[in-house]
Structures are given as C-alpha cells and as structure tokens.
Amino acid sequence: MNRYSYKNDPAVPPFPDEHPIFVFDAECVFCSGWVQFALKHEREAKYRFLAAQSEVGRALYRHYGLDDRDYEMNLFLEGGRAYFRSAATIRVVAGLGFPWSICRLFLVVPTKWADTLYGLVARNRYRLAGKTTACFVPNAETRHRFIL
C-alpha cells in the first residue's frame, strides 16, 4: 500500500484534514453503528468521519491501493500517516479516551493475528449486521464532524 501522503496526489480532491479522519463504509450497518458509537463516546470531538463511498473516500482508497468499490478495509488518517485494518480500529478506539484508551494494549498483539480477526469480521459485516440501501447520514448535531 502506498503510505505516502495523499496531499501530493492530484487525484485526491482537497479536503479539511486538520483532525484525524476515519474513512468508513457508510452502507454497512455495522460500520455506521461503529461511527455512532465513536460519536457518542469521544469527548474531545477530534475525529472526523468520511464515507468511503464519497468522491474523497474513493480517491483515498485508490491512493492507498485499496479497492474503491469494496470497502472491506477501513482507513484511519492521523498525523500524516495512514493506518489500515486492525491498527486503524485499535487506534480509533484507544483515542476515545478513558476507559477505551486501554485498548492501545492490543497494538502489541501480532499484526497478523489482529488482522486475521479484523478480516473475519470485515468479510462478514453485511451478514452480521446488514447493508442499507442508502449511506449513513449524520444528524444536525454531528454534521460538523463529517467531511461531506
């Protein structure tokens, strides 16, 4: 995967990136539920969320060598770095603050094991939680946290 900055890629439209960004499958009930969980528990409101199905989301997936039609892998951008699979998920959860910050300990689990578990859930996410016919839409209270 191309871990170089998307800022140097003319194929990625400009977007506000001064906050950490979680790119998620907005048609997946499981993924949208995860975003709602993060919105509820993240007290600092530092995260921004971006639908993988959006123009910017698809461009970021292509930039990092991901399939821009199958959003099985989440993407987390923080501090100029891109994180994928389990590392992305663990970093987002740990960043929610106490008591979730203890999840940072999972970063010591070998990546191969953590990504295997992540892959199992990701491949079965529609079977586990379903798929919507429309992308997740934030409410007026949280809309400022989304890159639209």
UniProtKB/TrEMBL annotation:
Superkingdom of the source species: Bacteria
GO function terms (MF aspect): protein-disulfide reductase activity
InterPro entries in the record: DCC1-like, DCC_oxidoreductase
Presence of keyword Acyltransferase: no
UniProtKB keywords: Plasmid
Keyword match Protein biosynthesis: no
PANTHER family: DUF393 DOMAIN-CONTAINING PROTEIN, THIOL-DISULFIDE OXIDOREDUCTASE DCC
Name this protein carries in UniProt: Thiol-disulphide oxidoreductase DCC
Organism: Sinorhizobium fredii (strain NBRC 101917 / NGR234)
